[in-house]
Write a structure and sequence with these properties.
Length: 190
């Protein structure tokens, strides 16, 4: 085991680690990047975004040493022969959450009725791409279950990924605007 780790460190000293990753893991990667560089001499060169966008980059042949995504996408990539099943390791679970701008009142979202009321009152709702981002897909399903898609369609503001959606929410001047994405993306957005 020691020799494998030593060989890995030596290989990494020769080149950077190229990462394609779900945006939800960006804060984690940034947190460990310094220690990784000190230990290996290599830097992590990460590209972060919606899982669908990262899948498309990998499928288009973009080089990467590591790929961070959802279990469903990893399973599909194993089926396509693009990822080795034995190499997959879970690194965590990320929840989807609701966000408001700093200083705005926090709406009640304790149950479906409260969430529906908060969303109906919001002048704008910021979310990641509902076709390529896990949180966007999930949130649109929630809106559908609440019977709100048609009612709220004009107020939905979609962006390529959750980080961009939360940055736009943070800059929005509309009091009461709401966002929805992965909690990790909410937490690292000022």
């Amino acid at each position: 085991r020691y020799l494998r780790q030593r060989a890995l460190r030596e290989a990494l000293r020769m080149s950077d680690l190229v990462l394609l990753s779900a945006g939800a893991a960006k804060a984690l990667v940034e947190r460990i990047a310094g220690a990784f560089h000190r230990e290996t001499g290599a830097k992590i060169r990460g590209t972060f975004g919606a899982v669908g966008a990262m899948r498309d980059k990998l499928a288009a042949g973009e080089a990467c040493d590591a790929f961070v995504s959802t279990a469903a996408i990893l399973d599909a990539l194993v089926g396509e022969g693009r990822v080795v099943a034995a190499s997959i390791r879970p690194i965590g679970r990320v929840r989807t959450g609701i966000a408001v701008r700093a200083g705005d009142p926090v709406p009640s979202i304790a149950d479906a009725d409260a969430l529906a009321a908060a969303l109906r009152e919001a002048p704008a709702i910021f979310l990641p791409d509902p076709e390529r981002a896990t949180a966007g897909v999930h949130f649109v399903r929630v809106l559908d279950r609440l019977g709100l898609i048609g009612t709220l369609a004009a107020r939905l503001k979609t962006y390529p990924n959750g980080a961009t959606a939360m940055n736009e929410l943070a800059q929005c001047a509309l009091p009461g605007a709401i966002g929805c994405t992965q909690v990790t993306e909410i937490l690292y957005t000022p």
